UniProtKB/TrEMBL annotation:
Source lineage: Bacteria, Bacillati, Bacillota, Bacilli, Lactobacillales
CDD domains the UniProt entry points to: ICL_PEPM
One GO molecular-function entry: catalytic activity
Official protein name in the record: Carboxyvinyl-carboxyphosphonate phosphorylmutase
Cross-referenced Pfam families: PEP_mutase
Residue intervals passing through the bilayer: none
InterPro entries, per database record: ICL/PEPM, Pyrv/PenolPyrv_kinase-like_dom, Pyrv_kinase-like_dom_sf
PANTHER family in the cross-refs: CARBOXYPHOSPHONOENOLPYRUVATE PHOSPHONOMUTASE-LIKE PROTEIN (AFU_ORTHOLOGUE AFUA_5G07230), PHOSPHOENOLPYRUVATE CARBOXYLASE
Native species: Enterococcus malodoratus ATCC 43197
Length: 276
């Protein structure tokens, strides 16, 4: 059942992509992380496929089941009041109909957006026609469910380093335009790119552009000036947290407890934080 509240969240999220201002979209991996980002003032969050996989003790890459992902989405949307977009990789299905059905279950679980990507585990890209069919099926789903959820179509051209610089630009631009024409609301092009590459991609693709935080260009003002609409942070937050957890576990194994004893986020403070 799609509630009016969920439809309103979807409208708010869609409007964020139509604004002239760039927004930062934190990627979350469980209920607690989503709650923290909402409490710290973010207007929307998105899941990280890698983050959920790590949180469940697996590597990234559809090693977890769709049911695992669905359960996490249900739990997050039941706790937060801001929009949640879901990264469901290639759709967790072999056929277009399976992908459409999985997307339907995510929306019915409370999501108001989804990422659908074209990258394959072997480093290749899905055929453009197949990815276009998936996007068109998601557009049909919007009409069937009566909710304008955001379709974020991802091309992994730069992420998988497909070809030389000229080829990557040509392929990413062509795929971005094909996906936008098919009905995608935003084009996601993750990878390490400098501002010249980002600016050219933006000029080549007349649709809202989503990039991922990276070391080559991370000046928020510059990215907004270029025309980037949505900035994801990917698995960076969850990797930061687990890196700290690994260090803590190593310290504890060596009888070093000072970081735990000196932690100022006390039991009382933690309860108060998650209570309000």
């Amino acid at each position: 059942m799609i509630s009016n509240e969920q439809k309103e969240r979807a409208k708010r999220f869609y409007a964020m992509h139509q604004s002239e201002k760039m927004f930062v979209l934190p990627n979350v991996w469980n209920v607690g992380s989503a709650y923290v980002f909402e409490k710290q003032g973010f207007k929307a969050v998105a899941t990280s496929s890698a983050g959920i996989a790590y949180d469940l003790g697996h590597p990234d890459g559809e090693d977890i089941s769709f049911e695992d992902l669905l359960e996490v989405v249900k739990r997050i949307t039941a706790r937060i009041s801001i929009p949640l977009s879901v990264d469901f990789e290639r759709g967790y299905g072999e056929s277009v109909q399976e992908v459409k059905e999985n997307a339907k279950r995510l929306i019915l679980a409370g999501a108001i957006g989804c990422n659908i990507e074209d990258g394959l585990p072997n480093g290749d890209l899905l055929p453009v026609d197949l990815q276009v069919e998936k996007i068109q099926a998601l557009v049909e789903l919007k009409q069937e469910l009566g909710i304008d959820f955001v379709i974020n179509a991802r091309t992994c051209t730069y992420w998988l380093n497909v070809g030389d610089d000229d080829e990557k630009m040509t392929v990413a631009s062509a795929r971005g335009n094909a996906y936008a024409k098919a009905g995608a609301d935003c084009i996601f092009i993750p990878g390490a790119m400098d501002e010249q590459v980002i600016a050219k991609l933006k000029a080549n693709i007349p649709a809202p552009i989503n990039i991922i935080l990276n070391g080559e260009c991370n000046d928020f003002d510059k990215l907004e000036e270029i025309g980037v609409r949505r900035l994801s942070v990917g698995s960076a937050p969850v990797r930061y947290i687990y890196n700290e957890t690994i260090k803590m576990a190593s310290d504890l194994a060596n009888n070093e407890v000072k970081p735990l004893i000196d932690n100022t986020f006390t039991y009382g403070k933690a309860n108060e934080y998650f209570r309000t």
